[in-house]
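Forgive a beginner's question, but would it be possible to get a protein, spelled out as residues, together with the matching structure tokens, please?
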Amino acid sequence: MNMRFLVKIIIISMMCSCTAHTNKEQKLSDSICVIFNREIIETPIPIPIEKFRQKNNYLKAQDTIVLSTNEYQMIDSFMKSNYNLENIDCRLYLKAGPRELCFPDQFGKDSLLDKLCYLVRCRCGYYNYFTPEDVKLDALVRKYGFPKSYKYKLLNDSFYNGMYPIKRKGSIKVLFVHE
């Protein structure tokens, strides 16, 4: 009798875990992956999109950020447009299913691209890896204002008797999901 009860519990728990896994996959398939470098805001060395495609394969997402439905749809609809990616100096990479979008360092006259890039940078925490002085030098910050959600990333270490900046080398991957 006790053995049957144990088997029923195991079967029920397996069924529940499979359902939870399916829901998680569904939520992640309806997300936008964002990858950015955190070393230098602007550099004269171009970065091809292929570097970000490779990073997408091995980087794990460090954070999941919930966007409003309007923000998510705005980004998603722009990604659906026919946008040439191959000859762009890629600084911020977005991927949703088969669709990709790259934001360059310099924009020119496309104000929609400017606004969208500024939104993505603010929401994914891009500016948080730079000092306030460095952030003020960014062209989009000069155009649209200092990000309201800005929080300079610091570590508290008693060995150094205070706060010091997090290392800025490497790339960050975050996921955008919608409400």
